[in-house]
Structure formats: structure tokens, C-alpha cells
Known about the structure:
Blueprint: E1 9-17, E2 23-34, E3 37-49, H1 52-60, H2 66-91, E4 98-100, E5 103-108, E6 113-117, H3 120-127, E7 131-133, H4 137-141, H5 151-157, E8 163-167, E9 170-177, E10 180-188, H6 190-197, H7 209-212, H8 218-225, H9 240-252, H10 258-275, E11 282-286, H11 293-303, E12 306-308, H12 312-331, H13 339-342, E13 352-354
Parallel strand pairs: 1-4, 4-7, 8-11, 11-12
Antiparallel strand pairs: 1-2, 2-3, 5-6, 7-13, 8-9, 9-10
Helix pairs in contact: 2-3, 6-10, 8-10, 10-11
Amino acid sequence: MIEEFHDNKICCLGLMSGTSLDGLDLCLVSFETRNGQWSYTVRAAETVLYADDMRKKLSQAELYSAFDLLLFDNEYGRYLGEQVVSFCKRHEVNPLFISSHGHTIFHQPDKGVTLQIGSGACIAAISRMPTVSDFRVLDVALGGQGAPLVPIGDELLFHQYDYCLNLGGFANISTNINGNRIAYDICPVNIVMNHYSRMVGKEFDDGGYIARQSIVHDELLKELNTLEFYSMLSPKSLGKEWVLNEIFPIIDKFELSVPEILRTFCEHIADQLAKCISPDRSVLVTGGGVYNTFLISLLKKKSKSKIIIPDDNTIQFKEALIFAFLGLLRMRVECNCLKSVTGASRDCVGGSVFLG
């Protein structure tokens, strides 16, 4: 089997679940390498929305006891395996292996802790396919942030752009500086925007419609923009705990209306993004935040760079696509995590493998 992973053309399935709890992304990709250059073709992709009970369990999992969290790790792994089986039947495909990001419950690399649930063993058992999971833990053990992990995919698959910016639960960015790929988390995006949108009965602020109806609250904006994290140098990464401890308490103490919160937070996001982008550069923007056209209009005004919005498959599934690629590099025993990005003591080949 090992020889198969070194073929010039390989088809595999990437799974991604983000902190914004939109659903599970599945992306079937064929990767091809010629003369040291990688290319890809998306063969099928879809998002499976979470049922209310699964979304509730995922949102509350950090509160579980250790034993209940272990039980849920297996439950969610079986769920992922079942979704893989259904996806493969619908599309009549048979990927060589599965590569799963899992769902992040804890991420505190300064304490040597990161946890993405969705047992790779359970995925492999249900799907009967080799499965790669737990991509972050080795990098954290090596003193790194364990995030972001997509930059090696940016380097090898999307190198034609000066910056790759992803707007998901959090915003992260990567670029090449003097031959080294540099990347880091910038600020929260959908994890905050969706939280307040749900207070007015919306899963998200479609197109930024709610936000654009209001005005910026200057005092809240100033307090958000002066958070210590934003003055820290990379490598740095964010997790849900930081939002719970730092962002929500600041916002909630002002007792503002939801439109005013969303308008101010859009301004905050755009301010932080623009600080990270040099003028007159090409910026590939992906992730669900792209569909907030109001936020994108603010970014265009503030950044003075060429903002490139790709096709829907790339917008929605770039992270799942790249996690499929990370799994392929793991199977080939090639570096899939860069110390220049995470601050680890060395580059590494991350991911646990279950042959199924």
C-alpha cells in the first residue's frame, strides 16, 4: 500500500469542521505531481449541515467531564465515518484514504494543549478506509502553535498569490517572506458574528445586511482594537477559549443592539485584516466570511490591495482540500507542518494514521 501514496496522481477525501459550527465540509480531491509541482482537481464537494443536537453537543463539549468527552470523541468519529460512507455512495467514489481535521475543542498551545475530536480510529472502522487525524498534536509537542496548518498547502498549491487569507471562525493569513512561509491567526470572524446573529434568529448575517444598517460604536471598537493579542508577533494562534474570555465580555458590557455589535465588529475585523496586508499585493480570500459582502467592501477600502474572490468550491472548501493534501503528505512521509509558521523547534510530519 505504501507505494500507492507515491503515485503521480492520487484521489483522497478531506474533512473539515470549523469553530463557526456551520457544518462538516467534505472535499474529494485528485492531486497530481509533475516535476516537483503539485496541482489539484476537486472532483466532488459538499457541506453537511449539523443537526441541532450535534451542533449543541459540539458547542458545549469543552464543558464535558473527561470521560464524557472521550465518549463524545468516539461518537463524533462514528458520525464522521457515517458521513464519509454516505458521501462516497452519493458520488460513487472510492478515495484512497480520508484526511480529517476533526473539531477543535481546546487549543491552548502555550500550555502544550490542543484537542480536535472525531476519533480517527472510529472513522477508519466505520468507513473501512485508511484515515489520518490529529494533525496538530506533534507540532504542539515540539513547542509550536499547532496552527495554522494550511500554509504548506498555500505554499505548494496557491503560491501564485502574495497572500492567502481565510475568513472562517477565525481569520488567518499566510505569505512567503524571503523564501519562508509565514502565517498566523489574525482575529475572530464568524465565531463572533454568528454568535450575535443567532440572538436575532439568524444563523449568520447574510451579506452583512444587519451590520450595514447600523453605526460603529467608537468606544467598543477602540477597546477591541487594543487587545494585547493584536500587538504580539507571529507565530500566534487563537481558540474559542480566547473569544469566551476576551471578546464576549468586552462586547457584552456595552449592552448594545445586535446591529450595532455586528457593525462595530465588522469594522474591527477589517481594521485587523488591513494591518496584515501590504498595499498593491494580490490577496486570495476564502472561507464563509467572503459571503459577507459588507465586510469585504470594508476590507477593500482599508487594504488598498487586489482582493481576489475565487470560485465557490475554492471559497467554501479550500481548508478541506488542503487537509486532504496534508494527509497525502503524511502518507508519503513528507513535511506537512512548517516551523516558520508555528514556531516549533523543527518542521514535522504530523498526523496519526489508522489503516482501517
